[in-house]
Amino acid sequence: MMKIKYILPIGLLALSAACATQHHSKNQNKNEWINLFNGRNLDNWIVKIHHHDVDVNFANTFRVKDGVIQVNYDGYGDFNEQYGHLYYKTPYSDYHVKLEYRFYGDLQKGAPYYTLRNSGLMFHSQDPRTMPKEQDWPISVEMQFLGGLSDGNPRPTGNMCSPGTDIVYKGKKLESHCLESTSKTYDGDQWVKAELIVHGDSLITHIINGDTVLQYSQPTIGGGVANRYDPRIKIDGKKLKQGFIALQSEGQPVEFKNIYLKDLSKK
């Protein structure tokens, strides 16, 4: 009887400790996600738009409305190649970022047709404060977002484009500027969930609505497309191990919400 009397409290204590540990672990995992957008304003974000100096949010292109980041051109005339990007203030190396986006409205007058229902998430980007006023695209890698055109033709999203960079796909350096994913086509103005997992200069994974749609590796500075950059920044062949993330504006109205990041470098 004495054995039973002492074993029960010890067993209960162990069970209680296990439950407490599990609860702490769940809370800790939940708290690992950093909310990059507060839903109220663009605090902690940096604007850079082609033809304008850094921090000039021309015509209020990037704004907050109803708890989302909205890209809008109602203050524009002709688009005039005013490609823009909204950068989070902190550069990262190894991380998992997730967000939701949706297209709406019409393509801005003067924007090239290829930008129709086209936006993206730039990553491993150069610091926007190193971009001259007339640099059009940041040296970066892009997780490209495309919307379907409701014409019955496939138009995958979660693709890869490489302004001023190179990547390796299936063991070979990719010669083209963009690479299609295996995603479904998403027509209309529906919200789409996108996730990007980046491991420094090694593996990069694109996820759309829970499905892995593209993987590649070894991003480096190189290639074309980015123009009028500072040559001291574009060091071809240099490994891209970290950089800034940015939301894109290139002529199509788009909205972003629920932007979270988990820093994997601390694991």
Automatic annotation (TrEMBL):
<dbReference type="Pfam" id="PF06439">
    <property type="entry name" value="3keto-disac_hyd"/>
</dbReference>
<protein>
    <submittedName>
        <fullName>DUF1080 domain-containing protein</fullName>
    </submittedName>
</protein>
<feature type="domain" description="3-keto-alpha-glucoside-1,2-lyase/3-keto-2-hydroxy-glucal hydratase">
    <location>
        <begin position="32"/>
        <end position="262"/>
    </location>
</feature>
<keyword id="KW-0732">Signal</keyword>
<feature type="signal peptide">
    <location>
        <begin position="1"/>
        <end position="20"/>
    </location>
</feature>
<dbReference type="InterPro" id="IPR010496">
    <property type="entry name" value="AL/BT2_dom"/>
</dbReference>
